[in-house]
Amino acid sequence: MVIGFIGLGNLGEKLARTLSRNNIELVVHDIDKEKANTLIKEGACWADSPRILAEKSDQIITCLPSPQICREVMESPNGIISGLQQGKIWIEMSTTSKDEVIRLAKKVEEKGVASSDCPVSGGCHKAASGNISIFSGAERKVFNQIKPLLFIMGKKVLHTGKLGTASILKVMTNYLATANLITLCEALTTMKGAGLNLATTFEAIKISSGNSFVHETESQVILNGSRDINFTMGLVLKDIEMFQDLAINNNISLDISPELIRIFKEGISLFGKHENSPNIIRRLEEQTGLNITEVGFPPNILDKEPESLGFEVKL
Asked: Which of 45, 83, 132, 162 is exposed most, by the fewest CB atoms within 10 A?
């Protein structure tokens, strides 16, 4: 089986390399061919266009930064849809909206091709190690066809139901992570202002009911000063705005969500959309004059968990 992979950014390149490391035959494409250099050296084939990639592949994975870019990759004259043939499967691993993935899936279905939205959660360090979590929205028979591939890329794989359900859940989890990031920024800044040692503060949170995945990862790169989590403020804003739209479309009024959007819009106006998302703490550093760093913390997060074959999370 040949797997096509389009989108070799911070996340996609790591997912693709996990497949390559596990001897999956790959055809790859990205708007920047240089991003494919390592994969090509490892044995992947390069496709000059999404259409050619689709023609050469049995299952096609897209992992792209926005619904707009995915739309172009799928629907342009040289796009994926133009190269599809009956029996192939499209796997959408981008963070996108339910409506958009369903719209594109209808066009894909006209070519006799099945679809699944399969966003991931857990951070780029988990993608690099093959231990990331994956949601999959699809008919059960489609999920059964793609799950061997998902078990290679990720560790915990959840079949979320019909197409589109995985994208809804992914946007929700990113909203929760963003809320946690902002509260951690406020907590760390307040503790520094109160005169507490930030290494002690980190450990206090870690052993307490206030601990979280975001604290154990992003707080470390905040305190190091690198603020490098391979995720940008612009991507955060895209995700939390999709969550807000989901709430509005279901006639649900939210209090915290609009405030998170305001904070990240302000952060982008100050630091740019390509700034690392944990550096949203700079807003507070500049307001207070405090330096929220501490020695002894790593500049990047590495996954220390050994790679192992994934499994389906059963309800």
From this structure: 162
Q: Say whether 72 sits in a helix, a strand or coil.
A: helix
Contacts of residue 155, Cβ cutoff 8 Å, sequence gap at least 6? 126, 130, 131, 132, 133, 305, 308, 310, 311
Domain count, the chain: 2
Query: What range does the domain containing 78 cover?
Result: 2-167+305-312
Instruction: Return the CATH number at 47.
Output: 3.40.50.720
Altogether, the residues listed in the chain come to a count of 315
Give 220-257 pLDDT, tens digit per residue.
Answer: 999 999 999 999 999 999 999 999 999 999 999 999 99
Residue 98 resides in a domain:
yes
Same domain assignment for residues 103 and 202: no
pLDDT digits (tens, 9 = 90+) for 17-64: 999 999 999 999 999 999 999 999 999 999 999 999 999 999 999 999
Radius of gyration of the chain (CA): 20
Joined tokens for residue 78:
């040289």
Question: Does 52 lie in the same domain as 151?
Answer: yes
Tell me the whole-structure pTM to 2 decimals.
0.96
Q: Say yes or no: 15 and 143 in one domain.
A: yes
